[in-house]
Every structure is written in structure tokens, then in C-alpha cells.
From TrEMBL:
One Pfam family from the record: GyrI-like
Gene3D superfamilies: Regulatory factor, effector binding domain (3.20.80.10)
AraC effector-binding domain span: 32-177
Name of protein: GyrI-like domain-containing protein
Domain of life per record: Bacteria
UniProt-listed SUPFAM superfamilies: Probable bacterial effector-binding domain
UniProt-listed InterPro entries: AraC_E-bd, GyrI-like, Reg_factor_effector_dom_sf, SmbC-like
């Protein structure tokens, strides 16, 4: 079984160091247990940011949601995915890619680029959708995934389902073998 540290090191071909200073046993993810889901035949219509992660990705998300509203695509059935495609430790800042996409039916016609999400199993962590809790999740990801067989060939996906976001929750989908 791969540990997250080993998976990250193999995928990005560099050492991975994480210093955790919190008691992971007290970290709660929306009160739910870890769930495993099989992703199959998921297509997204997406926008991409190329450049520094952070504020530009937040702006992309806001621009994307505005596009959805203007095109009457932001409904109670909406699921938005956020996908960081590159490791900032290895990729020049000006080449970092981040996609924000709407899960669509393959037959949907939306004036955006489309692409398929990698099929496979994902461990789903539900997290309170606050800046503090999301940062806490990323800080503790190595411990949270220590007992999982993480698939280093697929990116971690942030999932924003309309009804969960309305309840201040989001999900992190960790690819597993």
C-alpha cells in the first residue's frame, strides 16, 4: 500500500515534506465518514487558469459561476469541479494550470472547452467550506490518506455540489487504486 508521501514523491519526482502541528483525531470533515466513489464517464465543460495558484483560481471560480448564471446553468443540480493539474514545486509559476468545470451530460452544448475526468475510485472527504478548514485539510492530507492506496497518476479534485455548498460544505476527491 502506498503512503501519500511516497505517491507524491513518485508522481512529482521530488521529496515531499510535511510538518503537522495539530491533533488529526480532532479534525472533523462535516461529521461524515470517509466514502469511496467510482467515477465513470464524467465530462466537464471548463475554463482554465494558467499562472500562479491562489487568488487567480478564486477569480476563475467566480468568473465561471457568473458564466453559469448568465447562461442559466447554475441550478440545484449543478456540480462544479476544481482541479489543480500541476505541482508548484516543479512547474514554473507561469505554467501552473487549474481547471474549473461543470459536470455535464455528454450531449450538452455549452460554449466552453470540454474534457473527460479520469475514471476510477476516489476517497471522498467532506469539509466545511471555510478558508480555515480547507487549509487545514491540505495541511493534514498526508495523515488523512496514510492508509489509502493513493493513485499518483490522477489529480485530486475539489467538488462543489450545489446543495452541499448551500450548507457550507465541499468535498475533496482523492484518487485511489
Amino acid at each position: 500500500m502506498y503512503h501519500f508521501k511516497k505517491v507524491v514523491e513518485n508522481h512529482f519526482n521530488c521529496p515531499y515534506y510535511l510538518r503537522v502541528e495539530v491533533d488529526i483525531n480532532n479534525f472533523i470533515f462535516g461529521g461524515n465518514d470517509l466514502k469511496i466513489e467510482e467515477f465513470k464517464d464524467i465530462t466537464i465543460a471548463y475554463m482554465r487558469n494558467t499562472g500562479e495558484y491562489g487568488k487567480q483560481n478564486e477569480k476563475l471560480m467566480e468568473d465561471f459561476k457568473e458564466f453559469l448564471r448568465k447562461n442559466k446553468l447554475f441550478t440545484e443540480e449543478t456540480t462544479i469541479l476544481g482541479i489543480a493539474l500541476d505541482n508548484p514545486a516543479l512547474t514554473p509559476t507561469n505554467r501552473l494550470r487549474y481547471d474549473v468545470g461543470l459536470v455535464i451530460d455528454k450531449k450538452s452544448e455549452i460554449n466552453l472547452a470540454t474534457r473527460k475526468i479520469d475514471d476510477g475510485k476516489y476517497a471522498i472527504f467532506e469539509v466545511s467550506h471555510t478558508k480555515q478548514d480547507v487549509l487545514q485539510f491540505w495541511k493534514n492530507i498526508q495523515n488523512l490518506t496514510a492508509d489509502l492506496s493513493v493513485d499518483d497518476k490522477r489529480p485530486i479534485i475539489e467538488r462543489y455540489v450545489y446543495n452541499k455548498v448551500a450548507n457550507h460544505l465541499c468535498e475533496f476527491c482523492i484518487p485511489i487504486l
